[in-house]
Amino acid sequence: MTALLGRLSGIVLPVWAKWVALAALVIVAYGGGRVHEARRAVAVLADYIGKQAAQTVRIIERQAKTDVLVQTKYVDRIQKIYVQGVTIETNIPNYIQPFDTERFGVNAGFLRVVDAAWSGDAVGPAADSDREPAGIPLDDVALAQVANATSCRAWREQALGWREYYARKQVDINGEAGAWYQQDSDSDSSE
Predict the structure, then answer these.
(1) Distances from the Cα of 166 to the Cαs of 56, 158, 177, in angstroms?
(2) Which residue among 5, 75, 108, 186 is buried most deeply as judged by most CB within 10 Å?
(3) Whole-angstrom Cα distance, residue 12 to residue 148?
(4) How many alpha carbons fall within 13 Å on the CB side of residue 22?
(5) pLDDT reading at 191 higher than 60
(6) Whether pLDDT at 49 is above 90
(7) Which contiguous run of DSSP H or E holds residue 76?
(8) Do 59 and 168 contact (CB within 8 A), yes or no?
(9) Rounded to 5 degrees, what are φ and ψ at 133?
């Protein structure tokens, strides 16, 4: 190596060649620095993308758990409500006998009030015709009311289920639910 340096030191180069050699050396050094910086940037970007992918996987796993948890919880609750409704419907003949229908008739006014309640319309003024029998047996009225109550209870559970589902999704993604969500005391937040 020393012999090579000794030979090179004896070579006389014109000034322009020295400047070209210096410029080439600067360009090579600058290019090497740029390549090194690009490699660092790629490594930082790859690390960032890896962390984002890992976070996305964690979020997806939590969301899948939420999907199963909430669906199982509320499907079971809704199924129980419908089973209870059917049980109550089958017991109507035990509580309302045919002679009850003859003794306690349903009048037209009762039906007007119930229809108005379900439609949201005003009942209007009472009329003499409201006192007339409606011709509907009490057990049919009870059956309709049980079916309506069962449906309403099931819809309530569905609404609560959707509410919890969206709140849990917010927790899965953001770490907390919005201020709109107040978890019921009967819900278990550790699920």
Answers:
(1) 18, 12, 8
(2) 108
(3) 106
(4) 7
(5) no
(6) yes
(7) helix 15-95
(8) no
(9) -65, 140
Cα separation, 184 vs 106, whole angstroms: 39
Q: 3-state DSSP call for residue 133?
A: strand
* Sign for the pseudo-dihedral over CA of 153, 157, 162, 167: positive
72-107 pLDDT, tens per residue? 889 999 999 999 999 999 998 888 888 887 788 888
Sign for the pseudo-dihedral over CA of 86, 90, 91, 95: positive
Q: Which two tokens stand for residue 148?
A: 């309506």
Q: Which amino acid is at 191?
A: E
Q: What is the mean pLDDT of the chain?
A: 86
Whether pTM exceeds 0.70:
no
The residues near 113 (Cβ < 8 Å, ≥ 6 apart) are 123
107 has which bridge partners? 133
Residue 107 three-state SS: strand
| Two tokens, residue 101 | 């229908």
* Position 143 confidence tier, pLDDT thresholds 50, 70, 90: very high
* Paired tokens of 168: 């849990």
Task: Determine contact, residues 140/129, Cβ cutoff 8 Å.
Answer: no
**For 128-142, what is the mean pLDDT?**
87
